[in-house]
Amino acid sequence: MAETTIPIPSGAVTSERGTYLETIHSWIVTVDHKKLGIMYIVYALLFLVVAGVEALLMRIQLSAPNLHFLSPQTFNRMFTMHGTTMVFLVGMMILFGFGNYLIPLMIGARDMAFPRLNAFSFWLSAFAGLLLYFSFIGGSGLPGTGTAPDVGWFAYAPLTERAFSPGHTIDYWTVAILANGIGSIGTSINIIATVFCMRCKGMTLMRLPLLAWIYATMSFLTLLAISPLTAAQAMLMMDRYLGAHFFDTQAGGSAILWAHFFWIFGHPEVYVLVLPAFGFANEIIPVFSRKAIFGYPAMVSASVGIAFISLSVWAHHMFTIGMTSYGNAFFTLSTMLVSVPTGIKIFNWLATLWGGRIRFQTPMLFAIGFLFQFLIAGLTGIMLSVSAWDWQLHNTYFVVAHFHYVLVGAIIFMIFSALYYWYPKMTGRMLDERMGKWHFWLMVIGFHMTFDLMHIPGLLGMPRWIYTYGADRGWGTLNMLVSIGGFVQGIAILIFVFNMVWSYFKGPHAGPDPWDAWTLEWSTASPPPSYNFSAEPVVASRRPLWDLKHPEDPDSAFD
Amino acid sequence: MDSELRVKSSVFIRRLKLAATALVLWPVTAAASPSTSIFSTLSTPAREVNGLAFFVLGITAAIFVAVSALLIYALIKFRARPEDTAEPAQVFGSMQIEISWTIIPILIVTVLFLGTARVLFSVQDAPKPASALDVTAVGHQFWWEYHYPQYNITAANELHIPVGQGATGRVTYLKLTSADVIHSFWIPQLGGKTDMLPNRVNEMWIDPAKPGLYLGQCGQFCGTQHAKMLLRVSVDTPEQFAAWVAGQQKSVAPLAVSAATSTNDAVDAPTGQKVFEQQACINCHTVSGTVANGRFGPDLTHLMSRATLAAGAMNNTPENLKGWITNPDDYKTGSLMPAMHLTGKQYAQITAYLQTLK
To answer: B222 — contact with chain A (CB < 8 Å)?
Structure first.
């Protein structure tokens, strides 16, 4: 058995500072996975703020009955852009950013398998986002006559057909998502190739960090999910410009066909987003519990199992669309089955905490928030999988609350956790702990105020996508509280943005391994040199740095 | 530029004032109206779903309590203490434990699935009784159209159906479809939602237990005014329903024409009818027995039998009616009814006419 050999860095890596122009040029032409990863993350954080502002505008409009803060048209554009932005420009981009940054470092490689494809994918996805937002300016064809798309993020046909959506807003949406999807496919291929071909010596698949395992799984899922979406967008364009009638119900097309295509993409997409969050938890929870992850093989198979099952659950978004009872029963069962591997994951995280010495630093606080919130999100998910009950819950604020529990309570919380955890690696500076705790507690309070209460108007019959509601419906008080919670989250995120900027200049130096962690990225300098490792590491277990720090009790002895 | 700014800021101030008024009035105006809670169910399909809902809530609540108690216990018990220096014992997993927490969720899923399947099949595949009332409901941007094939009636926005339970009860079977984009028919107290799709007919049934007014609204985003595509269902006793049917079947009596009608000067119903029929109104609206036979907008033959206008956007009062036809955007921005740009007198005349459509 090979011994673990990792050259420990001799000190800070000094790099020569160029002029501003040279710096900008170096970022634009870079093919370095770390720089691309950081660009993905910064790009996504900018759009997080944009889409967050859109959400707050909607919350002002809904905070009391019969308000006229936003016109119905503007409100419809806001929720369409909020959803599209959060899924495609924030979720996908930031997760690919972490994947890009971390995977080569974690598997002891010097870069991704295809560095130029990597840069191409980033710039394609990035410009797709700008194209989507250009619709605000040029959506109707001429500069200054713009309107953003206003059909909801899943853009059900035939509302998107030219008869109901004249102008070019839908075209901006379609082309932007199509282009963004090509970028996602490029990155997925890159991640798969990197994980399977670029691992350092000794890193067998069963020694692969769980994060890399999950990114490989998520990338396969992305390949399978983005293709039907791209096909559907192509069909929609053909409907709108070439006289095809796929979704054109006035000429015999099918509205359900779009729904199937969209959700065959849309449901796996949820797992594309949530799997990396699981990956972060798999890395962060053990380090702050000071214990190895419990049940590594079970965690790997649960991730792969979730990916497989998630390919057969899409029509649970369509329980009200008029499927037969047998169709509804099938998708009820397949959806409920997702809870089995998901349950395994939660129990394994619990078992990792069990018997540990848990350190409550900011990354861990967010991870703990994630554990509770993901548990609740999973349980409301089970409620929605009960198809007969879903006839009532479908398209209400209960559903909105449920998927924000997943997307904010689980995914965004884990993204914050990951940012606190890997920011020192990326910048060489620690984020401020005190501001981090403020960020965490305000976020928790705001999140629960918003999304716990949001379930209730749904149960009281409030559908989503409505720009206002009557005073006699009894939804006013709850919506006011939900809106206040939204602003509390906004303040929390402002603190976080300030912390990121402030700590970049003033934060304490991190050193290579500030958390006393065990995976390879902590063996190199912070920030790592462009070549990552001065010599190729050799590993003998899942936790190479543990082996080095504990020669008396190395993991490799049990491997 | 400056004046444009001022206009914009005045719009903003008006909106702020509206917002402030709404805020102040909201506790006052939040008077009791029929519930739209999915838990206060008053029909068989809704009640069966409700029973299932509480069963699932019970199981998920138990899971939540058990798992979060374990989590909280672990977080407190295994927190790092200042005196800890060494690393804790490293445990890598246990096959027995993994198997047990795979099998227990599978058993729970089995129970949940069987419970769901029972309700699913009993609601969705219930045989249709011979006495059932048939209604075809058609979704439009942004209103509802109803056909009663057994009575040859066409109505709009407010659905009338008989009580569905008890000795004289009669179940209602709805065929749901759409004239344009996807809508969804939903009255929470009576049942879950069913989508209305163009080029397709979906079915659902309801058997309301009590007469009264039931509220709901469109459940699928359908365009600008999705929010004000409200649904009102009046559940009638058999006698009330028979009377309503008779009223809807009545044809409109021709109006007596006065001398002033010929000059279009009088503000009365007959002049209003003449103006109405000379305008584009009749391209979209039907008043049966007259030349107005448009199909794009709601049938107006018995407009005054409805309590609200524009799919529940406002009460059906003469002022609202006149305001609505004068400028629909004031009441329901983005509705497909255009402002006709007539004179104030013409609007008054048309309003007078419409008020005779009982």
So the answer is: yes
